[in-house]
Amino acid sequence: MTTRERCTIECPNGIKLDGSVFKPEKKNDTIGVVLVHPYSVLGGCQALMRGIARNLSDHGYPALIFDMRGVGKSTGRASLTGFSEVNDVISACKWLSTTLSLPRILLVGSSAGAPIAGSAVDQVEEVAGYVSLGYPFGLTASILFGRHHKAILQSPKPKLFVMGTRDGFTSVKQLENKLKSAAGRVETHLIEGASHFQMEGAGYDAEMTNLITKFISSL
């Protein structure tokens, strides 16, 4: 049975993040998952990641969700480009790894949380892999998040990009073109007919969980 515990993650700059850790009855001792929620400025919060986190825990993987700065009970102020939030992700990864004595972390980012998480991947030694759910590679979204692209595309760590074929922010062609230059092991999984916000909905939680657990077992 999964238990959920509230937690506070302290960042080096004095910001405190409100989070929840989902712990499985029989814990996998080698890897935990940190999930990064969609764009704070548009109402993104940890609650959007709760279904996937609970499912992952039911599969035996400890999972951490948290509100980035300026969201919910977390202190600080949200930034437009998500660069300040990269430090929140780094702190969350280190907290989960240290608190539960986990040598490896899988980092999962949803929507705008994907570029933010991508910028943190190579800054945390324990991060063993990365999953993006609806990375906003499109031209308009790139005005805000374009400066994050390089970090994840150049990372040698294994990565999986999941996207709906009807994503309004990124076309399948844009995704494919971006990933041509990516280093290391890169996988993509397209969900036929799904739009960007549809894929964020609870109806896709089970499918997202299956893709993530399959990716973990391949690491």
UniProtKB/TrEMBL annotation:
Return the InterPro entries for the record.
AB_hydrolase_fold, KANL3/Tex30_Abhydrolase
Could you list the residue ranges forming a coiled coil in this record? none
User: Pfam families in the record, alphabetically?
Assistant: Abhydrolase_11 (PF20408)
Task: Tell me the superkingdom of the source.
Answer: Eukaryota
Q: Provide the KANL3/Tex30 alpha/beta hydrolase-like domain boundaries.
A: 91-196
Q: What is this protein called?
A: KANL3/Tex30 alpha/beta hydrolase-like domain-containing protein
